[in-house]
Amino acid sequence: MKKIVLALLTVVMASVFVACGPSALEIKEMSSDCEFNVEIRYVPDDSIAILMGNALYVATSQLVSGNLYPLSISTRSDIDSRAPTDVVNSDEEFAAYINRRIPGVMNFGIVVDDNSANEIGFEKETAVKMFQDFFKKSYPGAKSVYFSSRNGELVSAKKLD
After folding, report:
1. What angle do CA 42, 44, 48 make, to 5 degrees?
2. φ, ψ for residue 72, nearest 5 deg
3. Signal peptide location in the record (predicted)?
């Protein structure tokens, strides 16, 4: 009987440990370690990604097809300024685009906002995999972290392989 109770207690403790994700502080630390972030959000009637600082804001409509390319990107100093748009057509062009702006980057964040579910045909897992595969291929040895956000606040994080 003691063995059964001990085994049950061990299972309960293990499930509690596994169910608990990183704390809010750990999530912030993980995000601050990211040198480049891709933030995926639902933005009605938008078809251009915006690069500001070390964050690339991508509208879900750009990813519905399941293809990353062609990817239209506008580099801006603030959200309201206008700038020319570059069209990236391959992994090599995208990596060169990132490297021109953030040389030596090796830590990536992929943020998916909960409003992305508003885009018909958008698959969060497919989008995360597209960027994860790109980072693995273009930046061997790089680290990626997947973040979920709600109303602009990071609520969960998971290190990707």
Report:
1. 80
2. -90, 125
3. 1-18
Question: Hunting for tokens 């964040």 — which residue is that?
Answer: 109
Separation between Cα atoms, residue 67 and residue 113, nearest integer Å = 19
Q: What is the pLDDT of residues 16-45, one digit of tens each?
A: 444 567 898 898 889 899 999 999 999 888
Residue ranges per structural domain of the chain? 22-160
Burial annotation 77-110 (CB, 10 A radius, 16+ → b, else e):
eeeeeeeeeeebeeeeebbebbeeeeeebebbbb
Q: Smallest Cα–Cα separation from 110: which of 137, 161, 151, 144? A: 144
